[in-house]
Amino acid sequence: VPLTSAKPRCMSDCQNHDSSVQRTHFNLFCRTMASKTPVGFIGLGNMGTPMAKNLLKNGYPVIATDAFPESCKELQDSGAQILDSPAEVAEKADRIITMLPSSPNVIEVYTGSNGILKKIKKGTLLIDSSTIDPAVSKEMAVAAEKMGAVFMDAPVSGGVGAASLAKLTFLVGGVEEEFNAAQELLTCMGANVVYCGQVGSGQAAKICNIMLLAIGMIGTAETMNLGIRLGLDPKLLAKILNMSSGRCWSSDSYNPVPSVMEGVPSANNYQGGFSTTLMAKDLGLAQNTATNTRTPVLLGSLAHQVYRTMCARGYANKDFSSIFQFLREEEGQ
Q: Is 36 assigned a catalytic role?
């Protein structure tokens, strides 16, 4: 091959290589810049605040709001921008996370007069980490799609402690092609991010988990109370349970008996954690879905009744592990 023809081909190869490298660097730069664009966060309660703070810790600017302005102070002090309404957040962010107490709250925040969908931009990714009725998640997904946005449900398991330590488990439902985009943000706040299927699947998984948690906590509290009445030391009994077949999360990680464990609500007069009110609400969701699907949930129904009774007896704002205290008071001790 003549030298004159080889030289241009070599130069062309080098130019193509340089162009390819430049494109790669440019694409990487664009992705990096996009990943650090502001993230909206709506709902700054016991769970939402530490979740949003973990986004800040990972370098994401956060634009937030809450129905109660006083709930915003801690996050504002950490560097977040606070706005007055969900609609204002939607104007400034194309990725928004919501963490709200109930289905009516979610409906209002998304579709209300100052809701997200009033000002939403096309292509916005909406991630709802509230625990709500799966049917409501599906309704919100349809409403978002009409506005050119994508809605995913991503309820959490793990409680306030896990939220603070970024060790939550996210149960995600929605369009599978959008899972990676959601995962980028959720991994800043959790240790596990699990794709469960179509919209509503995350809520379905969460409801099943919460029902088992409630049943397990009641069983643990009853067992510990019986053992104490039989003269067993509570720490010894907990140790025996946790090396035996009765072991469960409520016995080994969240024991309901005061003095058995440190760093759990039972060691702090049942303050903080996951309130009895929210447990009763979530069990109501489980009851409704069981009724709609004609699924027998005998212990789930009893657990719902127990936690509703506790709410009526002054335990509404205490952690759900206060079932142990409730049982002790019921027996007159």
A: no
In 38-160, which ranges are E strands?
39-42, 62-65, 81-82, 95-98, 125-128, 150-153, 156-157
| pLDDT tens per residue across all 333 residues of the chain | 333 334 444 444 444 444 444 444 444 444 444 457 899 999 999 899 999 999 999 999 999 999 999 999 999 999 999 999 999 999 999 999 999 999 999 999 999 999 999 999 999 999 999 999 999 999 999 999 999 999 999 999 988 889 999 999 999 999 999 999 999 999 999 999 999 999 999 999 999 999 999 999 999 999 999 999 999 999 999 999 999 999 999 999 999 999 999 999 999 999 988 899 999 999 999 999 999 999 999 999 999 999 999 999 999 999 999 999 999 998 765
Determine the Cα–Cα distance for residues 167 and 158; give it in Å rounded to an integer. 7
Q: Which domains does the chain have, with CATH numbers?
A: 2-198 (3.40.50.720), 205-327 (1.10.1040.10)
Both structure tokens of 165: 């330590």
Annotated active-site residue in 206, 235, 239, 281: 206
